[in-house]
Amino acid sequence: MPGVEWFMDFRKITTRDDQPIADLIRSNLIKYGLDIPGTAFFDKGLDHLSEYYNEPRRAYYVLTENNTVIGGVGYAAFDGFDACCELQKLYLRDDHKGQRIGYKMMHFLEEKAEEAGYRRIYLETHTNLKAAIHLYEKCGYREIERPETVVHSTMNKFFLKEM
Questions:
Q1: Strand 157-162 to strand 142-144: parallel, antiparallel, or no bridges (unpaired)?
Q2: For the whole model, what pTM was predicted?
């Protein structure tokens, strides 16, 4: 959609973003039937992501439009592969889906991860998230076998991208 991006901006998460991002994540998980144990829905620190990502080797970015949070995406070190981080908590408000914003979020995160020294990005997802899986595949992620170090036990699809 022409002009949509003009008012959108990425920035690092702050404490004022904690509740809007937690609400966005939970509402998306409910919509796709993933408000169950073994998903991010029950992550202990979900309501305080700014604290979790305020550590070395981690970062989370919110996407805003006219100063309103519309999405977010982050990464954290992943020890399952050499020089690897995990793409975490990529979520976008429903009213902004279908505008290729997810691709821009992926590209932005990949650039940030590469700047941080990572050469690979791992992610875990679920078959219920068909649009997300399509996005990952279009962005060059390849499906892999389940690694030994899976954090969210309900996730059943795993991807890796070499940068």
A1: antiparallel
A2: 0.91
